[in-house]
Specification:
The protein has about 130 residues and is an alpha+beta fold. The chain contains 2 helices and 5 strands; from the N terminus they run E-E-H-E-H-E-E. It starts with 10 loop residues before the first strand and ends in a 5-residue tail after the last strand. The relative contact order is 0.20. Its EC number is 4.-.-.-.
Length: about 130
């Protein structure tokens, strides 16, 4: 029994979570985070688009590969200060957005939001907006 017929045109948001380990120290900050320390970062990527011919926004495996190749492989077990002048969670989130937004657009979806958490209680949300 088919519960719902296939209907394209619905816009949906696809969500995929990742994690990576990295160390940093905040050179423009005065407090305990100016010393070298590490985090288990948690990244959530949200993309939006219409259902395709397979009734998916995007294949989870395709999104996973893109994020792993363009972001995780570069950041995991890295010293973030070698990649960023001031490796705050905010700056890393902007960089992740820049790595993903164009390639995702080429796949026919739009990067809506990323969340980047450096601890269980501290993180940022970035939507690609410029102030």
């Amino acid at each position: 029994m088919e519960i719902m017929s296939s209907s394209r045109g619905e816009n949906m948001v696809l969500v995929k979570k990742f994690s990576f380990e990295a160390a940093h120290n905040l050179v423009k900050y005065h407090g305990k985070c100016e010393r070298l320390h590490g985090h288990t970062y948690r990244l959530t990527v949200k993309v939006e688009g219409p259902l395709n011919e397979e009734d998916m926004v995007m294949d989870f495996a395709e999104l996973k590969k893109m994020v792993e190749d363009r972001v995780i492989k570069k950041l995991d077990h890295s010293y973030l200060n070698e990649l960023f002048e001031q490796p705050t969670t905010e700056r890393v989130a902007i960089w992740i957005w820049e790595q993903l937004s164009g390639p995702l657009r080429e796949c026919g979806v739009r990067l809506v939001e990323i969340e980047l958490w450096e601890t269980e209680t501290s993180g940022v949300v970035y939507r690609g907006e410029k102030v």
